From TrEMBL:
GO terms for cellular component: peroxisomal membrane. Keywords: Peroxisome, Peroxisome biogenesis. PANTHER family: PEROXISOMAL MEMBRANE PROTEIN PEX16. Coiled coil: none annotated. GO terms for biological process: peroxisome organization. It comes from Cariama cristata. This is Peroxisomal membrane protein PEX16.
Length: 264
């Protein structure tokens, strides 16, 4: 990735990290009007950055979070002693004569902080496989797939616009958002030879369709009573589950009020 593209990804990651805090803080300081203003500004900035990545830098299907979290266990470099042993030609493993079990030799045992329980070969293979997956270029998108990804990127802006036109109690914003999400996924489903990160992102988007059961006005009219009844039954009749379900019942009303938790 080029340096400008990395900067765009960094700024996009920062926006996704602070969006909930910005919404709640602005609502507390400037009230409801300030809250919706910061929501529109953040969604507009995110859409612009994502469209630049899609159309200018050909970033393909964009993942969330934009920068893949670092797996420190797999990315941890080899211990200096291991590197010296491998360069000097020392055997790092011992193979049992009767069991044929591979064990680390005592000479190549690293310090406690960098110790792992796999053989050096397994660790090197996992690191190389992880590096190969991370370095895979994005799958090129045709016109249909580019339109699908653009629909997914602009869906929050269209949803906010529909909220301003028809109000928060109307079914039209909910239906418009659902149609855009389903259309984007159906258009992207024809794309073949996706890499691992892109397949995981499409699975994540498909699972997030369940959020429509928790979004107003569907939640207010249909889901709320059934969900609270199910959580109450689990808390009353399943031992130990109440420690999770009772706080969740208290949290749901607050979760419903935060746009970036619910729609962002």
């Amino acid at each position: 990735q080029s340096l400008p593209q990395q900067k765009l990804l960094t700024w996009l990651s920062v926006l996704e990290c602070v969006e909930v805090f910005a919404e709640m803080g602005t609502a507390r300081v400037w009230g409801e009007m300030g809250r919706w203003t910061i929501i529109v500004l953040i969604q507009l900035a995110k859409a612009i950055l994502r469209l630049l990545l899609l159309l200018w830098y050909k970033a393909g299907i964009q993942t969330s979070p934009p920068i893949v979290p670092l797996n420190r266990e797999q990315q941890q470099p080899l211990h200096p002693q291991d590197m010296e042993d491998s360069s000097s030609g020392k055997d790092q493993t011992y193979v049992g004569k009767r069991s044929s079990r591979v064990m680390r030799s005592l000479q190549s045992t690293p310090s406690l902080q960098s110790r792992h329980w796999g053989s050096p070969q397994q660790r090197e293979e996992s690191q190389s496989r992880r590096a190969e997956e991370m370095n895979q270029p994005p799958t090129p998108l045709g016109l249909q797939e580019t339109i699908a990804e653009s629909l997914y990127i602009t869906r929050p802006l269209l949803h906010l616009l529909s909220l301003g036109v028809w109000g928060q109690r109307s079914w039209k914003p909910w239906l418009l958002s659902a149609v855009l999400d389903i259309s984007s996924l159906s258009l992207l489903s024809d794309l073949k030879d996706l890499n691992r990160r892109e397949r995981a992102e499409l699975r994540r988007r498909t699972i997030l369709l369940l959020y429509y059961l928790l979004r107003s006005p569907f939640y207010d009219r249909y889901s709320e009573g059934r969900i609270l009844l199910l959580l109450r039954l689990l808390a009353d009749y399943v031992p130990g589950v109440g420690f999770v379900t009772r706080p969740l019942m208290d949290y749901l009303p607050a979760w419903q009020k935060i746009y970036f938790y619910n729609w962002g």
